[in-house]
Amino acid sequence: MKLKIPFYYHVVLFLGLFLTYLLWEYGINDKAKIVQHTRLYLWITSTFFLSVFIVYLINFYTFCDWFLHKKKIHFYFLSIPFSLLIFAGARYVIQEVIVYHIIGIHNYDVRDLEWGYYIRDNFFFGLPAVIFSALSYLFWQSQYSQKQNQELLLENKKAEFQMLKAQVSPHFLFNTLNSFYSQLIVKDDKMAADVLVLSDLLRYVITETDKDEAILSKEIQFIQNYIHLQKKRFEDQLFLDFTVQGEYSNEKILSSALIHFVENVFKHGKFNNEAEKAIISIQIKDTFLEISTFNYFIEGENYSSTGIGFDNLIKRLEYTYKGQFVLEKTEENNTFKTYLKIPLKK
């Protein structure tokens, strides 16, 4: 996710640096006469800082966001010459074209405006802008990550609290279901099997979903049990294609990530028309997993907003997988599609 840093932070930062530099030159370096009597000095200094500011912003919002954000350090180092070329070009246009047009004086000697020398010389002056931009980006990224982690911990604490509220004597609940199962196994095998599935479903919700990671085989078994009970609820009027492709066993994924998409289909989808089947597809490859869903929904329903659960899922995905996941959702013609691709942990 891109850093959401207010633009005025950068403006205030550079104004502060500019004023500090002027005070330094005026006081400590004893250039008071130059500052007071030479407007060229102010023109050159201010436009130099403007050039630095331009490259700082370009580097911050493009190269840093493209490469540092995704930990592609070697690509970022390869981008530095491009940033320095931008600095040289920006400084040339501002000082040697615009300022020269205003005051009639070049900053560089005319003999030094040859492109080769000018670019080499400004590589040295532009490098601090690139380094400062990268350091600033890393600082804000660390602050954002820390804030994100705190928010995620708070969300997890809220979820744990809700879970504790829901866990009213779970052992009593399981014992009751097992008692029902023991009585029904003699009279109605199918009903007994459904009670057993419900018991496994509740046990998984209470004991596994509060963990950070889940074993893939257990997560898929939970989904299969969930769909099994939904079929009972719809009394054979559930038009749904559910498929799992690929081999899996003890791989680990983010807990409840897949369940969210399945629950969303059942919460909003239409299932009573065979021509408008819902689809849930899970594909397991060597190093990653993909889940895609498709369903029709009732016309007029606001499906584009998936609520707090979806926002929380995005935060958990960003925290766990950083930039190594793909999440998409599409709404059109009363249909809703979702797609998630995440890496598998062996």
Secondary-structure class: alpha+beta
The radius of gyration over CA amounts to: 31 Å
Order of helices and strands: HHHHHHHEHEEHEEHEE
CA-CA gap between termini: 26 Å
- Mean pLDDT equals 79
Beta-strand percentage range:
5-15%
Uncertain residue ranges: none
Number of helices: 10
Number of domains: 2
Considering DSSP H and I runs of 4 or more, what fraction of the residues is helical?
Answer: 55-70%
- Largest sheet, order of strands side by side? 2-4-5-7-6
Q: What oligomeric state best describes the polypeptide chains here?
A: single chain
The tally of beta strands, per DSSP, is: 7
Give the biggest sheet: 5 strands, mixed
General form: elongated
Keywords: Kinase, Membrane, Transferase, Transmembrane, Transmembrane helix
Pfam families: His_kinase (PF06580)
Protein name: Histidine kinase
Domain Signal transduction histidine kinase internal region: 159-238
List the helices and strands and how they pair.
Blueprint: H1 7-27, H2 32-37, H3 39-68, H4 73-103, H5 115-166, H6 170-187, H7 189-207, E1 213-215, H8 216-234, E2 240-245, E3 252-254, H9 257-268, E4 278-284, E5 288-296, H10 307-321, E6 326-332, E7 335-343
Parallel strand pairs: 2-4
Antiparallel strand pairs: 1-3, 4-5, 5-7, 6-7
